[in-house]
Amino acid sequence: MADCRCVKAKAKLFSLPLVSFSNNTKAEAVSWLQRDAVCDNSRCQWSLTMDGDVDPDDENVNSVLAQETLELCHILSGQPPTVIGELCQMMPSGSAWDISDQPVAATVKAMLEYFSEANAADCRNFLQSMCLLCENIPMRLESRLMSVAGYANNVCENPSPGVTKEEPPSPRSELQLVKRPRIDHWEHYIGAVTRSLLRRWERLSGALVKEVQLENVWVNPRTANRGRDRPDQTPGPTDRGSRTPEPDGDFGSLESRVTLETFLQGCAGKVTVVAGPAGSGKTLLMSCLGQQWAHGLGPVPSSYLFVLLEFRLLNLLSSPLSLSELLFRHYLPPKGEDDDDVKRAIVDYLLSNPAQSCWVLDGYDEFYSKLSGPEVQGERLDPEKPLPVADLISGLLNRQLLPGCTVLVTCRVRDVMDLEGVSDKVGQLLGWDSQEIKDYVDDFFGVKGDSANRAFGGQAADLLLSSQHLLAMSCLPALCNICCICLKHLLLEEKEGGAKVQDRGGETRGKDAEKKPEGVQIAGERKESGEDLITDGTNGRTQVQIPSTLTPVQIPSTLTQVQTPSTLSQVQIPSTLSQVQIPSTLSQVQIPSTLSQVQIPSTLSQVQIPSTLTLVQIPSTLTQVQKPSTLSQVQTPSTLSQVQIPSTLTLVQIPSTLTQVQIPSTLSQVQIPSTLSQVQIPSTLTPVQIPSTLTQVQIPSTLSQVQIPSTLSQVYLNVLCAFLSRNSAKGGKTGKAKTSKPPHRPSTLSWYRSEICELSQLAWRGLEKSKILFLEEDIPRSVLDFSIRTGLLSQVELRLESGTLARAYCFIHLTVQEFLAALRIMTSADVSDAQLKKSFRSRKYGDKFAEKLSSVLPEFSTLRKLEFCGSSLTATGAASLASALEKCPEITEINLSDNSLKDEGIKHVADIFAKLPRLASVMVSRNNSSLTTVDYLVGKMSSCFNIQRVHADAMKEVTVTFSQNSDMDSHHKKSEPSVSLLNQKWNKPEMQKVVKSLARCPALSVLDLSGGQWDVEVLKTLTQFLPKFNVTEKIILNDSCSSVDDLVVLTALLSKHPAVVELHIRLQSSPDPVPVSIVFSGGSKRPANTKTLCLGCCGLLHTGLTRVLRSLGTSCDLAVLDLSSNCLGNNGLKKLLDVLPHLGNIREIDASDNGISVEGVTMLAGALCSCDNLTEIHIRDGGREQVILKFCSGGSDDKEQLKMFRMNNSSLLPAHITALCMRLVRCRSPLELDLSHSSLKDKAVESLLRVLPKMASLQRLNVSHSVTSTAAALILARCLTVSRRVTSVELRPQSECFVLFDRGKAEQASCRLTHYSLNSDNVERLTEILLQGPELSDLDLSSNRLEDEGVKRLVDSLPRLKINSFVNLSNNSLTQRGLLDVAGTLVTCDDVSGVEVSVGAGERCLIWFRQNDGRCEKTLSVKGSSLESDHLVRLAAIVSNCPSLTKLEFKNNSLQSEWIEDFVKALDVGQTGCSVSIDECWIRAEKAVSLVCRCLEVSSNIQTIRVDHTTLHLFLMKSTGLTSVSLVDCALEGRQLSPVKSIIQRRPSLTELDFSHNSLGAAGAESLCSVLPLLPELSSLSVVSKETCETVVEKLSQALLQSATVQCLNLSGHVISDAAAQTMTAILPRLRSLNLSHCSWSAAAGLQLVRALGRCVRLEVLCLDCVHLDENSRACLAQALRKIRSIRSLKLNEIAAAVEPSEANGVLDLLAAMEELTRIEELELDGWRMSGGGVEQLSRLLPVWTELRKISLSKNLISDQSGDKLLEALTSCGHLEELSLCSNQLGDLTAARMALVLPSMTHITALDVSENAVGSEGSESLSRAMKCMKKLSRIQLTSVGTSELCAVAASLAHCPLIRDVGLGWNNCGDEVVLELARVLPVCQKLTRIDLESNSVSVVGVEALLRALQSCPALELIRLWRNDVSSSDAQRLSLKDGRLNFSST
To answer: What are the pLDDT digits (tens) for 804-816?
Structure first.
């Protein structure tokens, strides 16, 4: 019905807003339906209603109700009484209807009769209400009623007064809004399913030969065996679409042969099973059934939801899923997949109307899982709960899901027994008869063939019907199709001129042969050997047995091993096969040489083909062969139904060669020797040749020579060739496409050898994994394309678990896949016997088959696994198999599950355990065994020591696993075996029997007896035998304990049995089993003398607790007691606390979730005070959620043991606080009270404050996340006044919050109230508190709402407050007004030493106080504050009024040049002077020069002025002239020096000029040289170059000749010409400081300059970094150094590279020349690559340099041993301040020496040991050294070779002056950062931390973020290249800008 226009019509009509329709609008809609939407489907109910009376207004509503009264009466009778009552109330009140006084049916009938005769308005109202209130109304009927009645709010007529009630229409409208859309969504979904099924059928029907009609398919009904009586849930006639079902009764009276359509009539509401063999067309028929439903035909009503699921696709669903997920994700998602409301509506309708659904489950035989059988009154399953697919399908079958739905299952016949007990009717599909086969063959050649080939149809039918084995195959539709493909290929080959082959039947045929189709030889008439015949041993009849599948056929590994006669004339076949004995190898057989001597049976009915040739009994001697005297003794089956078709040819053995066969000339000459050893093989016999490859197989070239395949292999080879011949895109080796297909089968097979190999591997892998579906990624692309072109693979629509569609492929038939898998075995040498598992899974296999199998099993010497499952094996067959398996030494797995074995049969198997050394597992699950089997298997463990585990689950799952000899022989300790006996419902005698067997077992690791559900007596029996068990780990008794009596029995084990150390029981664990475990000392991680008892969720009352505690006794070493989730209450808690003194070894008690109230909490507080070893109590939710007690092991003498009372997530009232704290007052040990994450109101905080002074032992009060209001925070801050022991108050509303106490009176305290809403009014209250409290170390009020007014009030009170360190007012919404108030504290408060203010982004406001160091300098820093001119004027006034202000810093304040000039002009500084720095980005080039000139003009107090990059530096002091002008790195050019030149000329007092890092050029040098002679006081000139102009130095050197006052010269970076060098030699002798670093010169110029240094006897500072000195120059430098004894600073970085021996000697010479530098203070020798000799030389010099303050030896080759000597020598340098040893080869030895040396060097301020190989031990040594370095301000440990720097981080707490820490590139984790965060609040001067390129995560960074709140001086933490995502980095940076995640 999906394509019917009526569906679209209904959808459109229902989507219109009928609630507001007028009559005209409705008429238009109906007119549209009449014109465009009338369905042409004669069976469509909607189309019937639209014919004739279409308009609801034209249809009489009363007549419609009268017509439907009968069906409505049936529907209403099933509605709830409340619905019937509500409908009855619509009748007149005078009627006084009472439904309780009469039957419901009578009431309904009377009601319907009344409204059938009532007026139209009343009838419409009734129909509207009924459709909205009632459920399970068929959609057709509901649509009609709603159409004639309209909607509830569209009442055009006036109802009668007796019916209408004055009630608002909203409830009914609400119900309408819920129900109507649900029905619409249901109908739309049915439409989608309809379209899907039609598309499916369209795909399938395209390849059909003949039309599929259910009325032409025959079924044999069978009697269904119900496992239990189930109520008849068959829907009524209405639900079945008005079809009357066929009576089924008990299925015994039905016909023996009915059509499938007739069989399925009446299946509604029932479970129907259709069975049939593989290839019988089950899947196709189900698709046809779906197509008929889609067209409104067939036995399934069109109003039902048709769900077609294939088990092979369900196998792919591994995850649990709900019913809705199965429907929408796997079957068909509704339109708009993401609309959950649509899905919810469809599922709701399905659950409300389960009978309106039909579930077709196709192919149960392909399902991996087994469905569970019927339960006794099984519980309903929750459709929303995810379940495994097998459980969902079982729920449908067992009526636990959707009771009343229709279920149709298809499977093979052998699987019907799995569905017994749930099926209502069972039918078996019947095969085709001869006429049906002939009709199909005619259709096949008529439809598939062209006009030329159509003539083959009749001939092919005759050929097929004349061949009995092809005829037997063709009774199944799929196999009939395969036979037709085979015949077509053979006949077409002949027509196309196939290759000539040798005639295999050269002799003249008899008369019978002449009657056959011309030229065609019927292979079934005669046999080439006797291997296809077998005589039934019971009655001697010969039966035709045709194999139906080749699934596990045993075929030689290569075809080259098989040899067959080249001509049939060489083969002699006896008259009856019963005369021939088939030996184990064909090499022992003697065969006649000519056919003339052979009697051939006249018909194929005389020949029997065995199902497995291995079942033939082969005597030891040929003399035992019995042969009949005549052919008449052979019995032949009379009908085809007697033919036995086996499922497998598993054990067919094919001889390796036929070359040894002797063929006598006549049958009478056949000699039968008495023994096999007498068999003679003549030497002259021509060897029979078999082709080595398939390409050599010959096929007849003419039709007269066509050989019909006589075996399944030949059939499928021809079928394979037929499919391969369809390929037209196969390319040759040259890559060119072949234009024609190969003509012959051998050529075809060779032609496509690679593709066949790939496909056979795919088929083999699939069968190995029971896989028939393959995804695209499973198949190589080229093979997939080839297979699709040839048709060997067909596409299957597959929906994955995620709900998305995917392409999957399967072979055209399972038998094709099995044949290709057999080819894989034939042609692949890598498939060995060991890889071929012998598997027998069929109900047909029984004891007889087991006996036959036993005779051949010893031949499989490499057999590894035997599966004999799902069969009818009994003790007889088990005994046979066991005797045979003894001779299979390689066997590792035996599976005999799902049989009929009883105890005796399993004993046979168990008796061979010890005889199979490689046995790994034995499965005997789901048999008929009893407790005797379990007892026997357990007893076997005492004699068979390699048994590793015995597992039995209620006799359903019985498995024995074994340890291998390699495990036993290894040196590792062998693990003890285990026993699992699950769900065993034993009584006391049975338990006694089992425990006696268990007591005789060797040591067991685990004994699992779960699921027993025993009574107390049985449990006591177990515990009585427990001491006799040898269990090392634990005993599991899950679900075996159910009462307090059981608890008492088990609890006593802890005191009675020393080996039992743990007992875990949880009685209330629904829906999971009750966990019970008894742990022994070998399986516990705790010491043997500590025991654990866990009795959680046991429902214990205080009375039951008394019994449990009494059972423990007094001598129990109980350490852990878990009583959580019970019902102890306060009374139980009191009893528990009373026994604490008797639990001497107790460590922890868990009493959580026991209904303990606040009174119980008070008792716990008292116990904490009175019980000495009770140290911690953890409580959550007032005692209702968590109560944990922890004990110490130190004993009662430890009075200093810290005790903790933690009460979290609780609502604490004032009375609770008072009672709790008054109990804790009695505590004499140090106490921590934790009330975090609780609700503390203001009154509760006041109560806490009143009792705090009395708690003398309290050390810490934790109220984190508890004090959330500002008022409560101010109340708690009063503890500074009420208790003099308070040392710190730190309060934040949503963070860590605590109060710390000292044991005595605190000298000073810290107060931090942040992130509250403190305003100006609160400041007044806080100030009063602080004035009454102790002296403060710091006050932190950041992140509040003080604003300018609140800040002003606070700073006004600063002079009265006693604060030692700082006040933090950051993030309080300050403006420039507040900035000025804060800056004013420098004047108003003498103790203020510094102010830092920023009112822009990252607002910052800090007021620093003077330390007790005697210094009184003050500083002011203003950054990013957007100051205006008037602000600068006021700041100038503040500075002028503060004579002690020594440093003023402005940065990024958007200042203009004029404002700066005015500020400088207004500054009035004192005699001490003041430095001012102003940083603005525009101070560059000309603007910088202009600003310098203007400042010098407006102020005469400027002593030095300097522009460095973008910063203006001024130093002002009264009564001094200008001494220094510097313009450094400010983009200055030579032409811009003119203004400066005029200024300089007027300043003769200048002593220093610096124009470094600019671009002066020749013009600039000229200007500079012109002023140098005008500066008589000039002593220092610095012109560091950025260019390569030689002119600059030449001009400057000439000018310096005339300026004799210059003593300090810096020409770094210049190019010095030879002329300039010559001039400079005259200047150098008078210099005191010379810097020529990075200069370039020629060898001659360099030699001149170095020689001139020898005359610089006054030189104190020499810097020659990175200059090129050749060997001569270095020698001259060494000579010069010997003459200059005045040097104090020597920098020779990167001037030597000690690689060559000569250069190494040069290094030693330079070091030796420094011996006389006794006054040296600073030495830098970086990059010398100095090794052991140089270090040794340097170490000898260090004791002479007693004034050394800095030494840098970076980038050398100092080893660990050399470093040790160097540090030892440095001990004589008592004034050393900086030590740099980075980039060397130092290790732990040097670090250890540092730990000894550095503490004695008390002046060290900087230490750099980066880029060395210091390990974890070295870091520990460094940490010890740092603890003694009190003046350390900078330490660099970048890339030191270890990430274990926690000790280094901790040692920073001992460095009070530390400012810069580098820990980058060490791969440090969070543990280092957490330690760093812990010490940060102590390092108040720390400004920078480098943590880049480590492994710090978000956890570590958040710890730093919290610590930053206590570190106002910290400016930067570098965190680039850490384990923090970009989003987290951005989030954290926004919280605090000091966290820097960038690379710069």
So the answer is: 777 788 887 777 8
